[in-house]
Amino acid sequence: MLHSPVAATALPQSAPFPSLSLLFFCFYFNILAESAQNGGGPRMSRSRSRSRRVRPNVLVTGTPGTGKTTMSSLLADAAAMRHFNVGDLVRQKGLHDGWDDHLHCHVINEDMVCDELEDSMEEGGNIVDYHGCDFFPERWFDLVVVLQTDNSVLHDRLTSRGYMGAKLTNNIECEIFQVLLEEARESYASEIVMPLHSNNVEDISRNVATLTEWINNWRPPVRLKFCLKECMWLKHLVQIVFEGQCPIHLLVFD
Ligand code: ADP
User: Fold this and answer.
1) Is there a binding annotation on residue 62?
2) Do 130 and 114 form a contact (C-beta atoms < 8 A)?
3) How many angstroms separate the CA atoms of 199 and 136, rounded?
Protein backbone atom coordinates (compact mmCIF):
# COMPACT_ATOMS: atom_id res chain seq x y z
CA MET A 1 0.00 0.00 0.00
CA LEU A 2 1.35 3.42 -1.00
CA HIS A 3 1.53 6.17 1.58
CA SER A 4 1.39 9.79 0.50
CA PRO A 5 4.32 11.78 1.98
CA VAL A 6 2.11 14.86 2.04
CA ALA A 7 -0.53 13.12 4.11
CA ALA A 8 2.15 11.75 6.41
CA THR A 9 3.52 15.22 7.18
CA ALA A 10 0.13 16.91 7.30
CA LEU A 11 -0.81 15.14 10.53
CA PRO A 12 2.16 15.17 12.90
CA GLN A 13 2.27 11.90 14.82
CA SER A 14 3.71 13.63 17.87
CA ALA A 15 0.57 15.66 18.51
CA PRO A 16 -1.55 13.87 21.10
CA PHE A 17 -4.86 14.95 19.52
CA PRO A 18 -4.55 15.11 15.71
CA SER A 19 -8.11 16.41 15.30
CA LEU A 20 -7.31 19.25 17.70
CA SER A 21 -4.22 20.06 15.65
CA LEU A 22 -6.34 20.41 12.57
CA LEU A 23 -8.80 22.56 14.45
CA PHE A 24 -6.00 24.80 15.62
CA PHE A 25 -4.55 25.26 12.13
CA CYS A 26 -7.99 26.16 10.80
CA PHE A 27 -8.28 28.86 13.45
CA TYR A 28 -4.72 29.97 12.94
CA PHE A 29 -4.97 30.45 9.19
CA ASN A 30 -8.39 32.04 9.47
CA ILE A 31 -6.96 34.64 11.84
CA LEU A 32 -4.00 35.31 9.56
CA ALA A 33 -6.37 35.73 6.61
CA GLU A 34 -8.60 38.10 8.57
CA SER A 35 -5.60 40.06 9.70
CA ALA A 36 -4.31 40.46 6.13
CA GLN A 37 -7.79 41.40 4.90
CA ASN A 38 -8.36 44.09 7.48
CA GLY A 39 -4.92 45.44 8.16
CA GLY A 40 -2.94 45.04 4.95
CA GLY A 41 -2.51 47.38 1.99
CA PRO A 42 -2.81 51.14 1.63
CA ARG A 43 -6.59 51.05 1.10
CA MET A 44 -7.01 49.45 4.52
CA SER A 45 -5.51 52.41 6.32
CA ARG A 46 -8.94 53.86 7.04
CA SER A 47 -9.98 50.74 8.92
CA ARG A 48 -11.33 51.59 12.37
CA SER A 49 -12.77 48.31 13.50
CA ARG A 50 -14.20 45.14 12.08
CA SER A 51 -17.60 45.81 10.57
CA ARG A 52 -20.66 44.41 12.34
CA ARG A 53 -23.11 45.39 9.59
CA VAL A 54 -26.26 43.35 9.29
CA ARG A 55 -27.19 44.62 5.81
CA PRO A 56 -24.83 44.52 2.83
CA ASN A 57 -23.15 47.36 0.97
CA VAL A 58 -23.36 47.26 -2.82
CA LEU A 59 -21.15 49.22 -5.23
CA VAL A 60 -22.70 49.96 -8.63
CA THR A 61 -20.05 50.99 -11.12
CA GLY A 62 -19.67 51.27 -14.89
CA THR A 63 -18.92 53.81 -17.61
CA PRO A 64 -20.98 57.04 -17.42
CA GLY A 65 -24.32 56.51 -19.17
CA THR A 66 -24.61 52.77 -18.48
CA GLY A 67 -27.49 53.44 -16.08
CA LYS A 68 -25.91 53.36 -12.63
CA THR A 69 -28.01 56.14 -11.10
CA THR A 70 -31.25 55.00 -12.73
CA MET A 71 -30.84 51.43 -11.52
CA SER A 72 -29.40 52.31 -8.10
CA SER A 73 -32.30 54.61 -7.35
CA LEU A 74 -34.87 51.93 -8.25
CA LEU A 75 -32.92 49.30 -6.32
CA ALA A 76 -32.71 51.51 -3.25
CA ASP A 77 -36.51 51.83 -3.26
CA ALA A 78 -37.11 48.14 -3.90
CA ALA A 79 -34.68 46.84 -1.28
CA ALA A 80 -34.97 49.68 1.28
CA MET A 81 -31.33 50.70 0.98
CA ARG A 82 -29.63 54.12 1.09
CA HIS A 83 -28.39 55.38 -2.27
CA PHE A 84 -25.21 57.46 -2.51
CA ASN A 85 -24.59 59.02 -5.90
CA VAL A 86 -20.92 59.92 -5.43
CA GLY A 87 -20.94 62.51 -8.23
CA ASP A 88 -23.80 64.40 -6.54
CA LEU A 89 -22.12 64.06 -3.14
CA VAL A 90 -18.89 65.55 -4.51
CA ARG A 91 -20.77 68.55 -5.93
CA GLN A 92 -23.05 69.11 -2.94
CA LYS A 93 -20.37 68.81 -0.26
CA GLY A 94 -17.43 70.21 -2.23
CA LEU A 95 -15.42 66.98 -1.95
CA HIS A 96 -13.12 67.97 -4.82
CA ASP A 97 -9.89 69.76 -5.68
CA GLY A 98 -11.32 72.06 -8.34
CA TRP A 99 -12.51 71.77 -11.93
CA ASP A 100 -10.85 69.92 -14.80
CA ASP A 101 -11.23 72.16 -17.89
CA HIS A 102 -10.18 69.40 -20.26
CA LEU A 103 -12.62 66.72 -19.05
CA HIS A 104 -15.30 69.17 -17.87
CA CYS A 105 -15.70 67.61 -14.44
CA HIS A 106 -14.62 68.08 -10.84
CA VAL A 107 -11.31 66.59 -9.70
CA ILE A 108 -12.63 64.32 -6.99
CA ASN A 109 -10.85 64.27 -3.63
CA GLU A 110 -10.93 60.54 -2.88
CA ASP A 111 -9.91 60.84 0.77
CA MET A 112 -12.69 63.34 1.47
CA VAL A 113 -15.24 61.10 -0.24
CA CYS A 114 -14.15 58.06 1.79
CA ASP A 115 -14.22 60.03 5.04
CA GLU A 116 -17.72 61.28 4.20
CA LEU A 117 -19.02 57.76 3.55
CA GLU A 118 -17.17 55.85 6.29
CA ASP A 119 -19.83 55.91 9.03
CA SER A 120 -22.66 54.95 6.70
CA MET A 121 -20.64 52.14 5.22
CA GLU A 122 -19.87 50.84 8.68
CA GLU A 123 -23.63 50.63 9.34
CA GLY A 124 -24.36 48.80 6.05
CA GLY A 125 -27.46 48.97 3.86
CA ASN A 126 -25.90 51.26 1.22
CA ILE A 127 -25.76 51.41 -2.55
CA VAL A 128 -22.81 53.47 -3.78
CA ASP A 129 -22.97 54.58 -7.40
CA TYR A 130 -19.81 55.85 -9.11
CA HIS A 131 -17.87 55.45 -12.36
CA GLY A 132 -14.75 54.32 -10.52
CA CYS A 133 -14.07 51.77 -7.84
CA ASP A 134 -10.39 51.41 -7.04
CA PHE A 135 -10.12 53.97 -4.24
CA PHE A 136 -12.86 52.72 -1.91
CA PRO A 137 -11.73 50.43 0.93
CA GLU A 138 -12.22 46.87 -0.24
CA ARG A 139 -13.82 45.86 3.09
CA TRP A 140 -16.78 48.19 2.43
CA PHE A 141 -18.47 46.10 -0.24
CA ASP A 142 -20.20 42.75 -0.28
CA LEU A 143 -21.12 43.00 -3.96
CA VAL A 144 -19.69 45.03 -6.85
CA VAL A 145 -22.06 45.40 -9.82
CA VAL A 146 -20.56 46.52 -13.14
CA LEU A 147 -23.18 47.76 -15.61
CA GLN A 148 -22.39 47.29 -19.30
CA THR A 149 -24.01 48.83 -22.35
CA ASP A 150 -23.55 48.21 -26.10
CA ASN A 151 -21.45 50.93 -27.72
CA SER A 152 -24.09 52.27 -30.11
CA VAL A 153 -26.68 52.52 -27.30
CA LEU A 154 -24.16 54.19 -25.00
CA HIS A 155 -23.12 56.61 -27.75
CA ASP A 156 -26.73 57.79 -28.15
CA ARG A 157 -27.22 58.18 -24.38
CA LEU A 158 -24.04 60.21 -23.99
CA THR A 159 -24.66 62.50 -26.98
CA SER A 160 -28.19 63.20 -25.73
CA ARG A 161 -26.56 64.13 -22.42
CA GLY A 162 -24.43 66.67 -24.31
CA TYR A 163 -21.14 64.79 -24.28
CA MET A 164 -18.90 65.48 -27.28
CA GLY A 165 -15.26 65.52 -28.38
CA ALA A 166 -12.68 63.93 -26.06
CA LYS A 167 -15.21 63.36 -23.27
CA LEU A 168 -17.45 61.32 -25.57
CA THR A 169 -14.58 59.38 -27.16
CA ASN A 170 -12.95 58.61 -23.81
CA ASN A 171 -16.15 57.19 -22.36
CA ILE A 172 -16.95 55.07 -25.41
CA GLU A 173 -13.41 53.69 -25.39
CA CYS A 174 -13.70 53.05 -21.67
CA GLU A 175 -16.72 50.84 -22.37
CA ILE A 176 -15.17 49.12 -25.42
CA PHE A 177 -12.10 48.11 -23.42
CA GLN A 178 -14.17 47.16 -20.35
CA VAL A 179 -12.02 49.40 -18.17
CA LEU A 180 -14.44 49.42 -15.23
CA LEU A 181 -14.88 45.64 -15.24
CA GLU A 182 -11.11 45.19 -15.19
CA GLU A 183 -10.73 47.80 -12.43
CA ALA A 184 -13.39 46.03 -10.36
CA ARG A 185 -11.73 42.64 -10.80
CA GLU A 186 -8.37 44.07 -9.82
CA SER A 187 -9.79 45.83 -6.75
CA TYR A 188 -12.18 43.22 -5.30
CA ALA A 189 -12.42 39.45 -4.95
CA SER A 190 -13.59 38.12 -8.31
CA GLU A 191 -16.48 36.19 -6.73
CA ILE A 192 -18.18 39.43 -5.59
CA VAL A 193 -17.87 41.19 -8.97
CA MET A 194 -21.11 40.88 -10.99
CA PRO A 195 -21.25 42.28 -14.58
CA LEU A 196 -24.83 43.02 -15.74
CA HIS A 197 -26.18 44.20 -19.12
CA SER A 198 -27.95 47.56 -19.13
CA ASN A 199 -29.21 48.17 -22.68
CA ASN A 200 -32.95 48.54 -22.23
CA VAL A 201 -35.74 48.85 -19.67
CA GLU A 202 -36.15 45.08 -19.46
CA ASP A 203 -32.54 44.88 -18.32
CA ILE A 204 -33.25 47.43 -15.58
CA SER A 205 -36.25 45.47 -14.28
CA ARG A 206 -34.37 42.19 -14.34
CA ASN A 207 -31.30 43.67 -12.65
CA VAL A 208 -33.35 45.32 -9.92
CA ALA A 209 -35.21 42.06 -9.25
CA THR A 210 -32.00 40.00 -9.19
CA LEU A 211 -30.22 42.41 -6.87
CA THR A 212 -33.21 42.87 -4.56
CA GLU A 213 -33.35 39.12 -4.08
CA TRP A 214 -29.60 38.99 -3.45
CA ILE A 215 -29.83 41.79 -0.86
CA ASN A 216 -32.77 40.20 0.94
CA ASN A 217 -31.01 36.83 1.10
CA TRP A 218 -27.70 38.26 2.29
CA ARG A 219 -26.48 37.21 5.73
CA PRO A 220 -23.39 38.52 7.51
CA PRO A 221 -20.46 36.12 7.21
CA VAL A 222 -19.85 34.01 10.31
CA ARG A 223 -16.77 35.34 12.02
CA LEU A 224 -14.69 32.60 13.54
CA LYS A 225 -12.66 35.14 15.47
CA PHE A 226 -15.80 36.24 17.27
CA CYS A 227 -16.44 32.63 18.29
CA LEU A 228 -12.87 32.31 19.52
CA LYS A 229 -13.31 35.32 21.75
CA GLU A 230 -15.94 33.37 23.62
CA CYS A 231 -13.66 30.35 23.94
CA MET A 232 -10.76 31.28 26.19
CA TRP A 233 -10.66 27.67 27.29
CA LEU A 234 -9.62 26.74 23.74
CA LYS A 235 -6.56 28.97 23.99
CA HIS A 236 -5.48 27.19 27.16
CA LEU A 237 -6.16 23.78 25.64
CA VAL A 238 -4.09 24.59 22.54
CA GLN A 239 -1.23 25.77 24.74
CA ILE A 240 -1.28 22.50 26.65
CA VAL A 241 -1.48 20.36 23.49
CA PHE A 242 1.40 22.13 21.76
CA GLU A 243 3.46 22.61 24.91
CA GLY A 244 4.24 26.20 24.01
CA GLN A 245 5.94 25.25 20.71
CA CYS A 246 3.46 26.84 18.33
CA PRO A 247 3.30 30.61 17.63
CA ILE A 248 0.41 31.05 20.04
CA HIS A 249 1.09 34.79 20.34
CA LEU A 250 -0.43 35.20 16.87
CA LEU A 251 -3.86 34.35 18.22
CA VAL A 252 -5.54 37.65 18.95
CA PHE A 253 -8.41 37.47 21.42
CA ASP A 254 -9.66 41.03 21.22
P1 ADP B 1 -25.08 56.74 -15.22
O2 ADP B 1 -25.53 56.97 -13.81
O3 ADP B 1 -24.40 55.43 -15.41
O4 ADP B 1 -24.30 57.87 -15.79
P5 ADP B 1 -27.87 57.18 -15.84
O6 ADP B 1 -28.60 56.34 -14.86
O7 ADP B 1 -27.78 58.66 -15.54
O8 ADP B 1 -26.41 56.61 -16.14
O9 ADP B 1 -28.57 56.95 -17.25
C10 ADP B 1 -28.23 57.71 -18.40
C11 ADP B 1 -29.43 57.78 -19.31
O12 ADP B 1 -29.71 56.50 -19.84
C13 ADP B 1 -30.70 58.24 -18.60
O14 ADP B 1 -31.44 59.05 -19.50
C15 ADP B 1 -31.46 56.96 -18.35
O16 ADP B 1 -32.85 57.15 -18.36
C17 ADP B 1 -31.02 56.09 -19.51
N18 ADP B 1 -30.91 54.68 -19.15
C19 ADP B 1 -30.15 54.18 -18.16
N20 ADP B 1 -30.22 52.84 -18.14
C21 ADP B 1 -31.03 52.49 -19.14
C22 ADP B 1 -31.49 51.23 -19.63
N23 ADP B 1 -31.10 50.05 -19.10
N24 ADP B 1 -32.34 51.24 -20.67
C25 ADP B 1 -32.71 52.39 -21.25
N26 ADP B 1 -32.31 53.61 -20.83
C27 ADP B 1 -31.48 53.66 -19.79
Assistant:
1) no
2) no
3) 27
Q: Within a 13 Å sphere around the CA of 36, how many CA atoms are in the beta-carbon half?
A: 5
Residue in 105, 156, 157, 171 to alter for ligand 1 test, most ligand atoms within 8 A of Cβ: 157
Give, in degrees to the nearest 5, the angle at Cα 122 between 232 and 229: 0
Task: Tell me the residue type at 148.
Answer: Q
67 is in an annotated binding site: yes
Which pTM does this prediction carry? 0.74
CB 137 within 8 A of CB 114: yes
- Cα 208 to Cα 214: distance, rounded to the nearest angstrom: 10
What is the whole-number distance in angstroms between the Cα of residue 189 and the centre of ligand 1?
A: 27
Give 70-103 pLDDT, tens digit per residue. Answer: 999 999 999 999 999 999 999 999 999 999 988 7
